[in-house]
Amino acid sequence: MQRANSRLFTLATIGLLSGCAGNPPPGTPRVITISGKLPTLSPLPETKELQQKGGLQISVAPVPYELVPSGVSSDRAIQPSFMEKLGAPDGWQNMRFVERTTSSVLTVQPEALRFRITINNQLPRVFRGGGTVVQFNIAGKLLSVSEAGYADLVNVIVPPRTQQQIEIYGPPIAVIPEQTTVGLFLYDVVTKTDAAGNVTEKQNFEWYFNYAVQTRDEPTEVKTQRLWVR
Fold this sequence. Notes:
Blueprint: H1 2-19, E1 30-43, E2 50-53, E3 56-62, E4 66-77, H2 82-86, E5 96-109, E6 112-121, E7 127-128, E8 133-138, E9 141-144, H3 151-155, E10 157-158, E11 162-172, E12 179-193, E13 199-229
Antiparallel strand pairs: 1-13, 2-3, 3-6, 4-5, 5-13, 6-11, 7-10, 8-9, 8-12, 12-13
């Protein structure tokens, strides 16, 4: 009991002395500036966002991107002070003492090319997207994408004289140059059927966009704390 009281007295004395030193309280956050790269896509002048071939109208628009802050932390092994050793929890011999730094980074959402497609069916029969193939042209190179990225297009069913909106996904933003041209191609789209509903015509649709990246800066807090971890 006497040892415990002595330890508390020592902690209180050290805390009082440190409080009189005029230093900021431990863990006081500081503000820094973080940067993120925000993609923008705009159609090239020769590209019509709304295109009609046969009895089908298709329009394409890129989904807007945003920079979303997300927390990150890192630990650095350091030596505890005398007071921190006195305040160590039970079992500290099997623990590490670290300085933990917590801050934020800006990440792009969505993380891949993403387009919103509107299909307006003027055919006399139901339009089905099955058989359509999607390709992307990035910086002059054709890139095939997984069918999972345009599954909604392949599975879409649009009754006559109605329209439906879906989304498709392309390559990750991380693989795209900061300034380039992005082409979106839809191949073998049904644009004409006969009276029995048999396909009599298929067409290809193409859109081209200017892709550019803008750097955005935002303030964020950086916090540090010293603690025992297992």
